[in-house]
Specification:
mainly beta, 3% helix, 4-stranded antiparallel β-sheet, disordered N terminus
Length: 308
């Protein structure tokens, strides 16, 4: 069993599961969930390596969703309400839950899927127009300045650009683009310009891309129906695809060492739980089991908490 898989099994929300002692490097998980089956608003949780019970990252009752951790492990961006208007806002915090601050809000426009640059200095996100029929990818500096759209081409509505993901070198964004219900993967420079199409499914959508640490592959979700979503890898050099998980997979995230992919999935009508699988395929290992929905997993090297 790989050291990372041992670490993932040690970092489990199963209240009745134990795991072997993890070897270095150890990874915590940051993810979105709810505090109980009765709670209807998401919070962020951190599951420390070797622990069995997740703890709120931002404090109990601090509602937040769609976390994404920077590649350097220091920062997490997420969606949370703007305090005065309660509308969508992009927020930033350290991965230990400190230094929480609002970065960007735009009243009347829906914001979704924030993603930090590898060093946490910039944040990409998707912004819808007021009709919710069109969305662009925007970038804003982490201090809240210099907000601007980088996808600016005109299209017949409805047309969306969604789920941005930074390349490991910080030069490009992968995303999903197209008409709702039929999205394909594409890449654009973080400076804007032409959008390069990677995939265009004849039916369904390819979305939720995540880069491998070496930048050679993407893992993404192909949604055939609301109940059928497969986790697939794409070799960017050859175009080769590998289906890793067939069922109802969502929110894939490549581990920093490159030898595991975390994702969420539903089994038998149960709430979403977290799983890990090797990029080469095999059996998905379930790592959370509880009565609430766990989504948007992120890997955080344990050593990051001691660096700053």
């Amino acid at each position: 069993m790989s050291a990372l898989l041992v670490a993932a099994l040690a970092a489990t929300a199963c209240r009745d599961t134990t795991a072997p002692q993890a070897e270095a490097p150890a990874y915590d998980l940051i993810f979105e969930s709810t505090a109980s089956p009765l709670e209807n608003q998401s919070q962020l949780f951190r599951l420390a390596n070797g622990a069995t019970t997740p703890v709120p990252l931002l404090g109990a009752g601090q509602y937040a969703a769609q976390p994404k951790v920077s590649a350097d492990g220091r920062w997490v961006v997420f969606m949370a309400p703007e305090p005065s208007s309660l509308e969508d806002a992009v927020w930033l915090a350290r991965t230990d839950g400190t230094m929480r601050r609002q970065v960007f809000a735009s009243l009347g426009s829906a914001l979704l899927r924030p993603a930090p640059s590898p060093d946490g200095s910039r944040i990409a996100f998707q912004m819808y127009d007021e009709s919710m029929s069109f969305s662009r990818i925007w970038i804003v500096d982490a201090n809240g300045t210099n907000a601007h759209a980088i996808t600016t081409a005109t299209h017949d509505a409805p047309y969306v650009h969604v789920a941005p993901a930074w390349s490991p070198d910080g030069s490009k964004l992968a995303m999903a683009v197209g008409t709702p219900g039929n999205l394909g993967l594409a890449i654009v420079s973080v400076d804007g310009g032409a959008v390069t199409t990677l995939t265009q499914p004849t039916s369904g959508s390819d979305t939720e891309p995540s880069w491998s640490p070496d930048g050679s592959h993407l893992v993404f979700v192909h949604s055939a129906t609301p109940a059928q979503a497969d986790v697939i890898t794409l070799d960017l050099a050859t175009g080769e695809r590998r289906t890793l998980y067939t069922g109802n997979g969502r929110h894939p995230a490549w581990s920093p060492a490159g030898n595991l992919i975390a994702f969420s999935a539903r089994l038998n009508g149960e709430p979403n739980e977290l799983f890990v699988i090797s990029p080469s395929g095999g059996t998905a290992q379930r790592i959370t089991t509880n009565e609430v929905a766990d989504r948007h997993p992120n890997w955080v090297p344990r050593r990051m908490y001691a660096l700053d």
